[in-house]
Amino acid sequence: MASLAQANSGGILSWLDREHTVAKPGFSRWLVPPAALCVHLCIGQVYAYSVFNLPMTKLIGITESAPGDWKLTELGWIFSIAIVFLGLSAAFTGTWLDRVGPRKAMFTAALCFGGGFLVAAVGVYLHQLWLIYLGYGVLGGCGLGIGYISPVKTLITWFPDRPGMATGMAIMGFGGGALIASPLSVWLMQLFRTPTHVGVAETFIVLGLIYMFFMMMGGVIVRVPAPGWAPAGYVAPAKPKKLITDKEVHVDQALKTVQFYLLWAVLCLNVTAGIGVLGQASAMSQEMFPGRITAIAASGFVGLLSIFNMVGRFFWASTSDYIGRRNTYMVFFLLGMALYAAVPWTGRTGSIVLFVAFYCIIMSMYGGGFATIPAYLKDIFGTRYVGAIHGRLLTAWSAAGVFGPVLVNYIREYQIDHGVAKADAYSVTMYIMAGLLFVGFLCNYFMHPVHEKHHLPEEAKA
Amino acid sequence: MAKTSDPKDVSDANAVKLALAWSFVGIPLAWGVYKTLVNAVLLFQ
Question: Which of A187, A254, A364, A417 has its CA 20 to 30 A from that of A388?
Answer without folding.
Answer: A364
